[in-house]
Amino acid sequence: MDDLQNLLFKKKILIYGFGKSGHACFKFLKKKSICKVFDDKLNKIPKKYKNNIINYSHINKSFFDFIVLSPGIDLKKCKISNYLIKNRNKIISELDIFQLSYPNIKKITITGTNGKSTTSKLLFDILKKDKKDVRLTGNIGFPILEEKNFNNNTIFIIEASSYQLEYSQFFKSNYSLILNLHPDHLERHGNFKNYAKVKFKLIKTQSKMDYAFVDNKNKIINQLIKKNKIKSKVIIVNYKKYLNYLKFIKNSYFNNLINIQNLSFILALSKLLKIKFEKVFQATNRFKELNYRQQIIYDTKNLKVINDSKSTSLSSTKILLESFENIYWIVGGLAKKGDKLNLKKKYFKKIKAYIYGKDYNFFSKLLSKKIPFKVSKTLYASLKLVFEDLSKNNNKKIILFSPSAASFDQFKNFEQRGFYFNKIIKKYIN
């Protein structure tokens, strides 16, 4: 292990992508290695780093021991694609740097398709309540290499996306939770099987002292477990075994199937860690939903408004469409490759859809002859149509903003999209 810990010392390292992750990697590595930075948009790198910038024309002529690739970069579709493919064995991730630098830190890693952030934050709250020194990092928005003042008793909860795991070579997790899996990011991974295999790396790299938690209905992961020699202890999670505990959950945020299923993972892990369920229930009942993730922003006798801007696929919206009635669903943006609406017919009559954004044709064809819909160019225009139709209905109504698509056609990211929705919904409600 000492050899691995010294693997990054006095090396030549290229950091490609200078967003949150790339910047954190640079600050961490510059003290021990020679670092050069590159970004497809070099003008966005602050001037104070000008001596560390390498130009596109010089990369092919340069030697690097490692290439740290930011998760959002697709090596097949970027500016230095040929160079990256040729040097694929040198690519590592921010998670690898942390693993090599702190191999003895206890890590709980959560991945899956829907509900990773909520599950990670809730687990963080539970461990804090149990008086643990715990950190919440990763895809939830906090770079792991920026954490300070921790020791071998600190527990790191890491929300890991498929993009982060794809480029990792050395990362290992003591406790790996693979939540639900649905087709997602297929434009990057090619097909669902490849997507699942990337998530499976969390189990494949574990040792005999580690634990993996897998959904009992996750067929593809369970098949991979059977086909491979797995060293860790695998715990199969069946949410139905935990349904009796729902009577202790008073938080309405957990009144949908996806959150109930993910809560069962936390209960299974808490049992293993010998955390009293009473503390789990207390933390769950006090839990405040994360911004733009199934967030209830308005709720009265006649109207509930849910901001689920984080939804970038139809699978993430499906659970909400099944959880309510009288839904006014605002959907649209940049559709995911191969995305499908696997919704039973009995739910169609409970929904009216309002489509906006660049891929309106995709969603129009998808919903045709299933769910009635109206089309407009912008989110603002869609919401205007919703409120025109609301006045015709006297029953309790649900305005569901769950775009089921990426935001980049009209917004910088899902946070900006969610913030904008909250801003305009206030105008209409007032």
What does the model show?
By secondary structure, the chain is an alpha/beta fold. The protein folds into 3 domains: 2-92, NAD(P)-binding Rossmann-like Domain (Rossmann fold, 3-Layer(aba) Sandwich); 96-286, Mur-like, catalytic domain (UDP-N-acetylmuramoyl-L-alanine:D-glutamate ligase), CATH 3.40.1190; 295-429, Protein-Tyrosine Phosphatase, Chain A, CATH 3.90.190. It is 35% helix and 18% strand. It has 16 helices and 16 strands. The strands form 3 sheets. The protein has a 6-stranded parallel sheet with strand order 6-7-5-8-9-10, sandwiched between helices. Helix 6 (116-129) packs parallel to helix 11 and helix 6 crosses helix 12 (277-286). The radius of gyration is 23 Å and the shape is globular. The relative contact order is 0.09.
Given the helix and strand composition, which structural class is it? Answer: alpha/beta
Average pLDDT confidence is: 93
Q: Which percent bin holds the helix content?
A: 25-40%
Question: How much of the polypeptide forms β-strand, as a percent range?
Answer: 15-25%
